Amino acid sequence: MSFRDLDSGYSGPMAYGEDVVRTVNGFYELVDYDGAPDALPDATAGNGMVALGSSGAMILAGTFHGPVHVRLEIHDASPPVRSGGWDGVVEVSQHTPSGMVSVSSPSADPPPGLPTFTGLPDSWYRIRVHVAGQQEVRALPFGPDQPVERHLIQVWPAAGQEVEVVHLPLRR
Question: What's the DSSP call for residue 135?
Answer without folding.
Answer: H
